[in-house]
Amino acid sequence: MSTDAPLFQIEGLHVAVEGQEILKGVDLTVLPGEVHALMGPNGSGKSTLANSLLGNPDYQVTGGRILFKGEDVTAWPTDVRGKSGMFLAFQYPQEIPGVSVINFLRQALSARKGIDLSILELRLAIMEWMKRLDMDPAFGDRYLNEGFSGGEKKRNEILQMAILEPDFAVLDETDSGLDIDALKVVATGVQEVRTDRPELGVLLITHYQRILSYLQPDKVHVLINGRIVESGGPELAERLEQEGYEAWRS
């Protein structure tokens, strides 16, 4: 893939939930290696966009399309998107009692690579990443997200992103409910993964500007009432921090 070819595109996306239109024509293009931040107030359509990118069947695409590496993935189910190299981290990660972190990762990675991996092979990779992400090595044997703190859940997402080696990652409200230390851990973790995978594209969907001081985005987009009303560089996030969203609500 030439570096100029878009990695991920959203073209004229319209999405309805229970018959009500929430996204009203969203356009977004992410090139390989770019970090894009999508910001907006509550109710602007951020989580609708995240769910649409995930392939959540409750969110109906009524117009436009989603392209990944030039392929139209609008109708692809969630698992197929995941196997193809899209990673979707959630605002409220699921708890899965009885499934350890390492077992979950083994299943996910085996599906992604199309081969059955042994726990031993994976354990070595996980240990190395846990060290880089400053995680307790015992973490891998705990049940997925069960009794995890907010920060641990987020670290676990970053660990998943590191191990699964996606080409494109959507991080939805990764900073919600995190204190400043956990925020730094997440931002540092994303940067660690990008160091290994410089072509990785990231779309960070967030309400707050503060994570952007640790994770410098290439582009910032403002979503209001289901439309991107402005796009710019990192200075746009700073302007939002100072002025809020009022300037764009007409």
Q: Any overview of this molecule?
A:
The protein has 250 residues and is of the alpha/beta class. It has a single domain (8-248), classed as Rossmann fold (3-Layer(aba) Sandwich), CATH 3.40.50.300. It has seven helices and twelve strands. The strands form three sheets. The protein has a six-stranded mixed sheet, sandwiched between helices. A four-stranded antiparallel sheet has the order 2-1-4-5. It has a two-stranded antiparallel ribbon with strand order 7-8. Helix 3 runs parallel beside helix 5. It is globular.
Radius of gyration: 18 Å
Mean pLDDT: 86
Tally of DSSP β-strands: 12
User: What ranges have pLDDT less than 50 throughout 5 or more consecutive residues?
Assistant: none
Query: Which superfamily, in CATH terms, is the homologous superfamily?
Result: P-loop containing nucleotide triphosphate hydrolases
Summarize the SSE layout with pairings.
Layout: E1 8-17, E2 20-30, E3 35-39, H1 46-54, E4 59-68, E5 71-72, H2 78-84, E6 86-89, E7 96-100, H3 101-113, H4 119-132, E8 143-144, H5 150-164, E9 168-172, H6 180-196, E10 201-206, E11 219-224, E12 227-232, H7 234-243
Parallel strand pairs: 3-10, 3-11, 6-9, 9-10
Antiparallel strand pairs: 1-2, 1-4, 4-5, 7-8, 11-12
Helix pairs in contact: 3-4, 3-5, 5-6
